[in-house]
Amino acid sequence: MNTYSDLHNSSQRNVLTIYAHADDEVLPAAGTLSLMSKAGWNVRCLILTDGGLSSSPIKGTRHQEADAAGKIIGATYEFHALEECNFSTQAVIKVTEEVLGRWQPDLIITHAPQPEKYGHRDHEVCAIAVSNVATRKNIPLWYSAPPVFLRGFEPNFFVDITSVIEEKVAAIGCYESELNKAFMQLDAILVLSRFWARELGQKDGYFEAFEISRQWVDANFFTAIANNSHQQVVKQS
Ligand SMILES: [Zn+2]
Prior knowledge:
The protein is α/β, with parallel strands linked by helices. It is built from 7 helices and 8 strands. The protein has a single domain (2-236), classed as Rossmann fold (3-Layer(aba) Sandwich).
């Protein structure tokens, strides 16, 4: 399994997250996005719906909450107004392609596709549509962990977010209108972050888990490895 602790060697690059609802992005990925932004990545969060159908009694605050979360993790947001529980894969493909034209991401992060009976219908439609676009456009794609019901999610990539766990908790805390959800509670956030550490065999630390759907490394990567190993051989002799 891979871990990804070296987010610091990147020059200016773009990561685009695409999620159905505001708050979907912070639960599985706030720590990773914060690390990326600190490492110089441009972090853009695309939200497909505007939260009108939320079960929360507090209405109409999701944009402000997202902006507050974005200030903490170093992300900017873009909202679209697709109809919750009723949008199609075609609608998501159209929005995604339009945003890609403007944003040109080096990496996309989205919901993990899951059988519909385990997940939210909107998450599933979003995952299918974004996977379609990323495949056609040949863009690296990571799936993030579902907040609950992990069936069908097969993480193969873990990010150590211990240094930014407080930022993650604070970013989630910005979504005041959603804090009544069980998986938004502090204990649930910490337990799941620790669960991924244990999955890696680590006793301590907090992690986020991803399933890499599409990613490659270019020839420079192997050249760098070859150069490094050569230098080490020279040093040893
Ligand atoms: Zn959602």
